[in-house]
Design goal:
It is a single chain. With 271 residues, this protein is mainly alpha-helical. The protein has one domain (2-269): Orthogonal Bundle (P1 Nuclease). It contains 11 helices and 4 strands; from the N terminus they run H-H-H-H-H-E-E-E-H-H-H-H-H-E-H. It has a two-stranded parallel ribbon with strand order 1-4. Strands 2-3 form a two-stranded antiparallel ribbon. Strand 2 (132-135) and strand 3 form a beta hairpin. The termini are close together.
Length: 271
């Protein structure tokens, strides 16, 4: 059903794709579509994350239904996908959102913030590669804590393995936990809080310089919150071998959960 829907309602060929060459597998191709789509539809940007503040007690943060967030977005897109009366393109795009958001909700820094846009405003030196300011107006830095969790750390952990080999290794390692994950069922709020705790304990928790928990304030760019990026830059955070050794288990487990739980979602749509 997934392949049929995605194949019968293909992605707009004029859409500029970040990942090239474009994947031939429909699910793989769909997995990055939401990020490409967001460029022309910035109103969907807030659907990719949930800004649970650092230090918040479990269950105390509620997503703003007007602005929405990843937990509400997943539920809404599933409703669209399940409705056979909806426009076929809308259902295909809903499926693409679901595939993408199932990954995003398991990235710890998509479910936590410290007035730093989920670590996007925390410049880091990554294995001796220093951060560079790419936009002075918004105080955007590459590399940053969020970015290295999205990409560089995963690539280093995978090492020379192909995507298929890395996935197979993770599948084998965490297979004993599959039954437990299945019993826990589909619960987006629980998944978000689980990721939030991983952010607190690992993503922020094992940095070489401890970052204090900040009082939440509205943040649009890394200039806000009293120049958050500049303040974080002065900490000279480093992500290197020691950090990677602490983070590896969490990253691999979250990838395994994301794949397994995506399958659970789809199996509920088409039992």
């Amino acid at each position: 059903m997934v392949n049929q829907i995605l194949t019968d309602n293909p992605i707009d060929p004029t859409l500029d794709r970040y990942c090239k060459p474009i994947a031939t597998d429909p699910i793989e191709d769909a997995s990055t579509w939401a990020d490409d789509y967001r460029k022309g539809h910035p109103e969907t940007g807030g659907l990719h994350f949930i800004d649970i503040p650092r230090g918040a007690a479990k269950g105390t943060y509620v997503c703003d239904p007007v602005k929405s967030c990843i937990t509400l977005a997943l539920a809404e897109q599933i409703k669209i996908l399940q409705d056979p009366a909806r426009d076929p393109t809308a259902r295909a795009n809903a499926l693409r959102f679901i595939i993408h958001f199932a990954g995003d909700i398991h990235q710890p820094l998509h479910c936590s913030t410290n007035n730093d846009r989920g670590g996007n405003c925390v410049p880091v030196t990554f294995f001796a590669q220093k951060p560079l300011e790419t936009d002075q107006t918004t105080a955007t830095y590459q590399l940053n804590l969020h970015g290295v969790w999205d990409t560089q750390l995963v690539e280093r952990i995978a090492s020379s393995k192909t995507v298929e080999q890395f996935a197979a290794a993770i599948d084998k390692r965490f297979k004993p936990q599959f039954a437990t994950w299945q019993e826990e069922g589909v619960n987006f709020d629980d998944w978000a809080w689980e990721s939030h705790e991983d952010a607190e304990q690992i993503a922020y928790g094992v940095l070489n310089r401890k970052i204090p928990v900040e009082t939440p304030v509205p943040v649009t760019t890394c200039v806000d919150a009293n120049h958050i990026a500049e303040r974080m830059l002065k900490l000279k955070e480093k992500v290197g071998p020691s950090y990677q050794s602490y983070a590896t288990r969490t990253i691999e487990e979250q990838l395994a959960k994301a794949g397994f739980r995506l399958a659970m979602i789809l199996n509920q749509v088409w039992p």
